[in-house]
Amino acid sequence: MSSMAEDQPDERDDDVVHIATRDEWAAAQQSGVVSPPSLHTEGFVHCSTRAQLVATLDRHFRGAGPLVLLQLDLGAIEPHLRWEESHPGERFPHVYAPIPVEAVVAATPVIPPAA
Questions:
Q1: Predicted confidence (pLDDT) per residue in 36-72, tens digit
Q2: At 52, phi and psi to the nearest 5?
Q3: pLDDT per residue as tens digits for the range 62-113
């Protein structure tokens, strides 16, 4: 197991966010947890820092239509948070558990780039 220093890059002071569809956010508010398909298929919730947001929206959500940016409380997710390389030389925050709705400190509409 790696140490905390290895698990967290210099971006650890940046906001950690999760990008959800409107339907995913509505379902989370009903169920009490953010539990996107990736949690079941890959074992974790994909997240980004604000510094990574523009590239993440461009790379994975181009043309997706209106989305919701969920800013997460680091203290609430830290026990399940790991920083892992997703692209060569780029480490992203991954949450290895459903995220309680109470850990979402802000939900803001966001529009990704057009297709």
A1: 999 999 999 999 999 999 999 999 999 999 999 999 9
A2: -95, -5
A3: 999 999 999 999 999 999 999 999 888 899 999 999 999 999 999 999 999 9
Residue labelled with tokens 């969920």: 70
104 — phi, psi (to 5°)? -90, 110
Q: SS in 3 state form for the chain?
A: CCCHHHHCCHHHHCCEEEEEEHHHHHHHHHHCEECCHHHHHCCCEECEEHHHHHHHHHHHCCCCCCEEEEEECHHHHHHHEEEEEEECCEEEEEECCCEEHHHEEEEEEECCCCC
Maximum Cα–Cα distance across the chain: 41
pTM: 0.87
Query: How far, in Å, CA of 94 to CA of 36, rounded?
Result: 12
Q: Which domains, from first to last, does the chain contain?
A: 4-110 (3.20.170.20)
